[in-house]
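Students often ask what a holo structure prediction actually looks like on paper. The answer is less mysterious than it sounds. You provide the chain, you provide the ligand, and the output is a string of discrete structure tokens encoding the 3D arrangement of the protein together with adenosine-5'-triphosphate.
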Amino acid sequence: MTNETWGQVREELIKRVGKHNYATWIEPLKLSQLKNGVARFEVPTIFFGDWVQRNYGDHIRSQLNSAGTPVDRLEFAVGAGSAPATPRVAGQGSQPARPRVPDEELPGAPLDARFTFDTFVVGKPNELAHAAARRVAEGGPVTFNPLFLYGGVGLGKTHLMHAIAHDLQARRPELRVLYLSAEQFMYRFVQALRDRQVMGFKELFRSVDVLMVDDVQFISGKDSTQEEFFHTFNALVDANKQIVISADRAPGEIKDLEDRIKSRLQCGLVVDLHPTDYELRLGILQQKVDYYRSQYRGLVLADGVLEFLAHRITTNVRVLEGALTRLFAFASLVGREITLDLAQDCLADILRSSDRKLTIEEIQRKVAEHYNVRLSDLIGPKRLRTIARPRQVAMYLAKQLTPRSLPEIGRRFGGRDHTTIMHGVRKIEELMQTDSQLADDLQLLRRLLQG
Ligand SMILES: Nc1ncnc2c1ncn2[C@@H]1O[C@H](COP(=O)(O)OP(=O)(O)OP(=O)(O)O)[C@@H](O)[C@H]1O
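The corresponding structure tokens follow.
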């Protein structure tokens, strides 16, 4: 492949990954060899190569393939004598790097250009989270630290975090904003341990002005990562730097997370993204339709289709968006108006799974997982309190969340009598009045089960 072709491929990659990520991660790559389906690039550091491989490897491969250069593997080698690249990092703008923390080492994850405040639809369920995110994005004095956003799958946590980062970049380009997932934090930490670069790691994370960590529940049970996270967190809070955290549940509900971390996370503002309501879903659909209309000109959307979708697809926004995307793509392919019939045909599987009823088995599995007991014990005959109580919780939830009768539930709990189930249900109803831990457990389990 000629350098000219690589030039064209790079042009395409700008469109795929966005200008900013391109300048940070793709531009510094030097294609050094292309042979037998392997493309080899020179990179400034091992970390840089790893990062590009993980985050952009697929894009690069597919663009090379579409340019007529079959490649099935990418390799990255630290370029001997190659001038160190100085890619830009999120929020750095034209400011010089701080001493001892080269910018290319700042391991921020790519931001999705579509996740901005402009595209975030605000409704009752998310208005508080949105207002708090806006407040942080103004970049003024730190008033609550951290901002802790939590909520079920696909309710907009990542969207809000990216929106904060985009806004801060535009408003305060001198700030060093670092966004990454908790998994990436761990990956980076483990790598630093392996390469004996822990000091560098510490300096790097302490050099940012705003740290955003997504899906923090990921570090539960990972002791040394938690320890490091705790120190990073404290150092930044002490230096009055803003931290934004997201998780799928409230800090107190994250299992296997050290108490001192839980209490630190609770110190700031903890806000909940509630499950969407009908109005919010309709609002989101209307906004997406405006966008699709510009893409698929001439497509007609019949009255009532959006209302139908907002009514029927209640699980999460990602599924809702996916349904609309499919509907527009399908209608444009077959050149038909988007009617209710078309929606029902084309989205049959999504509609079916949205209708899906919760099963007793799912409830048992979730409860066993939550209380850390074996599924077989939960169903089996053991009478130990540590098992009997979770079992009663599962019975209670089965009664509340499924239409099954007491005898049916009894059968699924190892053939127990319906009076045993009734006793279990009553016991939990009684205990939840006085035992706040149990009430919290039930609330969390309900949320996890109902999405
Ligand atoms: N209020 C909203 N307005 C517009 N789009 C939204 C809204 N809420 C969610 N979305 C969209 O739904 C999709 C899922 O959102 P996002 O990735 O932020 O969810 P999440 O809460 O981080 O989920 P997960 O737990 O899976 O990480 C995204 O495409 C996002 O843009």
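Residues 81-103 have pLDDT under 50 and may be disordered.
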